[in-house]
Amino acid sequence: MPRLDHCPKNRPTAPKRVKATRPALALLATAALALAGCAPTPLPTYETVRGESQSALQRVVDELPAGLKVDKNPSDKPFGCSGDGVFYTGQWTIETPEGFDGQAFVDRLPEALGEDFLVEETRLELSYPAVSFIATGYANSTVDVSLLTRDEGVVVDLLSTSRCAQPPASPSP
User: Fold this and answer.
1) What CA–CA distance (Å, rounded) separates 109 from 106?
2) 95 near 153, Cβ under 8 Å?
3) CA nearest neighbour of 52 among 141, 117, 170
4) N or C end of the chain, less CB within 10 A?
């Protein structure tokens, strides 16, 4: 009796392999990378963004004369941003000495802070010296510097807002 495997019509057929061309493989690899890039990036922790903003504020304070009193607003309540995220807003007030030239301080601040602080143009007409920054060296925190006259004299008012973050682990970070 003849063996069936010698007969071409009775042989089991193997699945046909599709030969992918190099362009097709490159296209598949590119698509996989693109899809991986679309995965949502987890938000940083609130503690991280608070630290970035406070470091940016401190960098501005470092440009003031040494020994000035810095009043750090104790309110550390996070504010909502996109989705379930929150951002940190910090406000620091610095009392200045008699004769402090606030306008000169604001005018020289962009150069003193360097490339880690980009001046953000505003459309507001202000009656007091002020400058706004994007602190690129501090994860793009915003920093507003204003010279305000109060009962106690001229103060430097600093306001910083962080990037969006995860809500804090505890209610009061």
Assistant:
1) 5
2) yes
3) 141
4) N
Is there a contact between 165 and 83 (Cβ–Cβ < 8 Å)?
no
The DSSP result for the chain, as a single string, is ---GGGSGGGSPPPPPPP---HHHHHHHHHHHHHHHHTSPPPPPPHHHHHHHHHHHHHHHHTTSPTT--EEE------EE-STT-EE-EEEEEEE--TT--HHHHHHHHHHHHGGGSEEPP-----SS-EEEEEEGGGTTEEEEEEEEEETTEEEEEEEEE---BPPPSSS--
Pairing type for strands 130-135 and 118-119 reads antiparallel
pLDDT in tens, 115-172: 999 999 888 889 999 999 999 999 999 999 999 988 878 899 999 999 999 998 876 5
Contact (Cβ atoms closer than 8 angstroms) between residue 89 and residue 173: no
At position 148, the amino acid (one-letter code) is: L
Distance separating alpha carbons of residues 151 and 169, to the nearest angstrom: 38
Question: Shortest CA distance to 57 belongs to which of 172, 173, 162?
Answer: 162
For strands 141-150 and 86-87, give the pairing: unpaired
